What we know:
79 residues; Ubiquitin-like (UB roll); four-stranded antiparallel beta sheet; 1 helix; 4 strands; 16% helix
Amino acid sequence: xxxxxxxxxxxxxxxxxxxxxxxxxxxxxxxxxxxxxxxxxxxxxxxxxxxxxxxxxxxxxxxxxxxxxxxxxxxxxxx
Length: 79
């Protein structure tokens, strides 16, 4: 990101058939987050079997969170 800034993303955490956590991230989430809408979207991901992982299909929700990262660029001479 040119000039730095704060980057936000929503992380949706699921459990796969192997019992491992699988995280899907989406940039620029709508804020404030609507817990009911996030819950419904996660239920739909599971019901529609929209994603799979190396450990099998997604079988359960584990959590959701908004992650914020502060980025500051450092000017360096690039030849």
